[in-house]
From TrEMBL:
The keyword Repeat does not apply. The keyword tRNA-binding does not apply. GO terms for biological process: cell division; cell wall organization; peptidoglycan biosynthetic process; regulation of cell shape. Cell wall formation. Catalyzes the addition of glutamate to the nucleotide precursor UDP-N-acetylmuramoyl-L-alanine (UMA). This is UDP-N-acetylmuramoylalanine--D-glutamate ligase. Residues 110-288 form the Mur ligase central domain. It catalyses: UDP-N-acetyl-alpha-D-muramoyl-L-alanine + D-glutamate + ATP = UDP-N-acetyl-alpha-D-muramoyl-L-alanyl-D-glutamate + ADP + phosphate + H(+). One of its GO terms (cellular component) is cytoplasm. ATP binds at residues 112-118. Its EC number is 6.3.2.9. Its main location: cytoplasm. It comes from Dyadobacter sediminis.
Length: 450
């Protein structure tokens, strides 16, 4: 008698429920466990799909009886339950690892400390707009595993976080993109930057000579790491500083790409995304499109019709010639560096939240030269306030987003930019960065109607 393999899914969010559905569809004995209460949407889905689950508790005896554990990326490897599973030599993998074993689609995986969402959305848009049968998943959109269970795409464009890459074994993207590596989430990596670097480089761990590795050449961290490694995949560089033989670069305000003997050129000013960081994102996406065989007309049409996701340098309103920008997705200092670099106008910066061991020296010069006022929207404001006292002429602290926006309006004059770019996580005052961004937008629109 064939015994069903026991699969435990830890975490009942989008990735966990998707993994449970795929595991059930592949004939496994599946059980989902979440220490918190499930969102009603997901408990309803599990009930409908006849997948047993528990919430508010981890039944360790049942979990330790598993043959395989699929873990939510939000659960650190350091928690006692995961350590105990590893001591018992029960494999613990991520959803992307599990799902990738059940699809023959070409996988395009994109990671980086910043820019991966925009690059993923842009690459997906270019391919979809050109008529390719492509799915969007990973750290964005619907669960990768769920789509593998129910769809039959030729391509997947995946936004991949370091947390997802920590628990891979065989995951092998046909195209891997590494945009940048700057200190982030160090609390998950024993405050050791090299551990975080190694996690990001897991994206090419299983690549072969048949695969492609697209990387940002101007990053000193990435360059040094490449020199230390024997990388078998075909390497394509992206650069804002120098011409690349194979890959893409920025020259004379143009995006120029040369891949496999095919060239492409486009004026960056024509694109709907702005700023040097988005030039890097666009160059990476163009390289992906060329590797997928898109012609220049299709690439150009896709670039010009792209619209970025909310909360990423999203223009909310212009009120009395002052532009209000929602960049709530900027949850680390590097993101704020790119955001400030996108504007020539004087900036009133709204920042703050849960500090993740931030080093504000990275943005000190930009803040000194561009920021006329700093509004700290946070319960813990001391670190930001103390660092920028003497650097910014005006600093104000608050825990109320409407109060923050009102103060920004009071300080602003025509031609200014009010920029929400927090450099911090959102959990002190908001549910998540989307909630923070939505409440900022609502507060700005209250100005219009007041």
């Amino acid at each position: 008698m064939l015994v069903q393999k026991k699969v435990i899914v830890l975490g009942g969010g989008e990735s966990g429920v998707g993994a449970a559905i795929l595991a059930r569809n592949k004939g496994f004995d599946v059980f989902l466990s979440d220490r918190s209460q499930l969102h009603q949407k997901y408990s309803d889905i599990l009930t409908r799909e006849n997948i047993p689950f528990e919430q508010g508790i981890h039944s360790e005896a049942r979990i330790f009886d598993a043959d395989l554990v699929i873990k939510s990326p939000g659960i650190p490897d350091t928690v006692p339950l995961i350590r105990a599973l590893k001591e018992k030599e029960i494999p613990v993998i991520s959803e992307i690892e599990f799902a990738s074993g059940y699809t023959d689609a070409k996988i395009i995986a994109i990671t980086g400390s910043n820019g991966k969402t925009t690059t993923t959305l842009l690459a997906y848009h270019l391919l979809k707009n050109a008529g390719l049968h492509v799915g969007l998943a990973g750290n964005i959109g619907d669960s990768f595993a769920w789509q593998v269970a129910e769809k039959d795409y030729e391509y997947y464009v995946l936004e991949i976080s370091s947390f997802q890459l920590d628990n891979i074994i065989h995951f092998r993207p046909h195209m891997a993109v590494l945009l940048n590596i700057t200190p982030d989430h160090l609390d998950r990596y024993d405050y050791n930057f090299q551990n975080y670097i190694d996690s990001k480089f897991n994206i090419i761990r299983n690549q072969t000579a048949e695969d492609h590795f697209i990387y940002f050449q101007d990053s000193e961290v990435i360059r040094k790491e490449i020199e230390k490694r024997n990388i078998p995949s075909s390497m394509l560089a992206v650069s804002l500083e120098s011409e690349t033989e194979q890959g893409a670069y920025f020259f004379n305000r143009k995006l120029i790409s040369n891949v496999s003997g095919k060239s492409f050129e486009e004026d960056f000013a024509e694109l709907p995304v702005k700023g040097p960081h988005n030039a890097v994102n666009a160059l990476a996406a163009i390289t992906i499109a060329q590797l997928c065989g898109l012609n220049p007309v299709a690439i150009r049409e896709g670039l010009l019709s792209f619209r970025n996701a909310p909360h990423r340098l999203e223009e909310v309103e212009t009120i009395h010639e002052v532009t209000y920008i929602n960049d709530s997705k900027a949850t680390n200092v590097d993101s704020v560096f790119y955001a400030l670099g996108s504007f020539e106008q004087p900036v009133i910066l709204i920042a703050g939240g849960v500090d993740k061991g931030n080093d504000y020296s990275q943005i000190e010069e930009l803040v000194r030269n561009k920021v006329k006022g700093l509004i700290i929207l946070s319960k813990d404001f001391e670190k930001l306030r103390d660092y920028f006292t003497g650097i910014v002429a005006h600093i104000y602290t608050t825990q109320d987003v409407q109060n923050a926006v009102n103060k920004a309006q009071e300080w602003s004059v025509p031609g200014d930019v009010v920029l929400l770019s927090p450099a911090c996580a959102s959990f002190d005052l908001f549910q998540n960065y989307e909630d923070r961004g939505n409440k900022f937008k609502a507060a700005v629109r209250n100005l219009v109607h007041s």
